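Subgroup meeting minutes
Present: P.N., E.W., G.H.
Scribe: E.W.

1. P.N. recapped why we're keeping a running log of single-chain structure predictions: easier to compare across weeks, and new members can see raw inputs and outputs side by side.
2. G.H. added today's entry (402 aa).
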Amino acid sequence: MTKRFLFGEAQQAELDRQFAALSTVRHSVISNPMLRLFARNNLIDVLHGTLSWGRATPATYVDRYGILRTAAIDEPRQEASGWLFEGASTNEVLRSGHFPSSLWVKDQGSSPVSVSTEPVTGPDGQLSAYVLSGNGDTDARLQQAVSTVYQSDTATFSVWVRRRGGSGTFKIRVAGVPDVLGATDRWERYSVSAAMASDVAYPAIYPMDSELEIAFSQLERLPFATSYIDTADTPVTRAADRVNAALLGNTPIDHQSMSFVFGYDSLGPVGVGVAQRLINYASDGFDRLTLQHYRYDSAQYGLLTLYSDPIYQTPVFEGDSFKWVAVTMDPEGNVAGYRNGVAVQSAIANWSRPFTKEEPLAFGSNFMGNESLFGHLRDFCIYDAALTPQEIAYLHQGVTDA
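Output recorded in log:
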């Protein structure tokens, strides 16, 4: 008898393989996490107790339609990439959104640039932008001197720009040689970072032969741009996000199996040897369990610390772009890390009794509110089981980076 295949032999073999893998997935386990937070359009899905989200200042964010919004004090911020977490940062530019101000010097170069006195519609949908016109002089620029930076800093200057006329070519600078960029017909935020050679920065925009609409400038003592902070006559600081949930009821207690599954990205590395915490549990002033985005010797790593023993370092978190990661642990000390559904490293760890008393789980920072994540978290789940490679692969199906 000849065996017949409904879809062809190769397709049938693939279907058989998928079915065999599916039969090893414990759907009752993966469908019932102990905790699930930061889902799209759903901050809290599964949680015992309450989620505390604190931030002492308002903060801006870009919604999934590309509109710049302002969140109130303690209000979470959701962007297209996930729920936004940020540490504190200060905008050192004065009159950051009011370019007709005399603080913005317009006669640098051999000829002055022109800035409209009447605002036009900006990236927030309000009359918040101004028209900056060049005359072909490649050195003519709109510039401000900022003396609240330090020679040891890496600083970032950012500004929202939209092409109004001309080629759209323009330059921006924070220090040294400016970067040449190209504006489009939609609002986009452009940024440039540089190591400071003096204690004065000269953030500048060179319109060249273009007519540009510009809005919301920012100079920060960070190697990347964070959410926009509006200023008037003094620098303004945005406070850090502090997010906590209860330990009991959201994690397995004592020496049990456990898995963390979530997506995240980072706006950039803060510096070599500086951690950005994704989740942290500490007791008696010591870290007991933490997952962090960590840069070590010019490479990006994720470092898992268990019971004050940082034995598990893995490139599962390597790089700043969005990634879907998982870490599984069982009572025998077997730890495995996954990136985008694929296993990348395993180890044997001494992680007995990581949870010794009721202290909060901190998301996006350590237990003191420091070492903040600058980035997004999405679909953060904790399971009371060590998920298998087949289950990790199954969960990863359909995950995207947007």
